[in-house]
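Please check this protein record:
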Amino acid sequence: MSTTVASEANPEFDGFFTHAAAGHVAFPHCRACGRFHWYPMPRCPHCRSIDLAWRRVSGPATVLSFTRVLHPFDPSRAGALPYVVGLVTFADAPGVRLVTNIVGAGLDALRIGDTVTPVFRAETDGHTAVDFKRA
């Protein structure tokens, strides 16, 4: 469950994937009230302004919560087991919580509060997936 979607079906994610393709994590930021938000939407959920722009964040995130998936929710995911889905936060994007895969070595030692860093990889659909790994 990498952070990927089809842009044609969800154009509000275009900014996310444009930044990901360049090796950066970015979120919608309101220029009127100065706050970040996530899920992308046409108006700021805090002040309702339409003056939004995608702003890069530094990258490291903190694990707020996670789960190890041991049973496939869909038969197509059976070969990926087990995998870790995490909820991560960013110090320089207060209020943003991103659901993402946490990949790589040392997942048995993963703990709430651990620092994770983004990993970018090309998908077959042309998008860039953003996962995270332990720092």
About this structure: The first strand starts at residue 25 and ends at 30. The beta strands are 25-30, 52-57, 61-69, 83-89, 97-103, 115-122, 128-134.
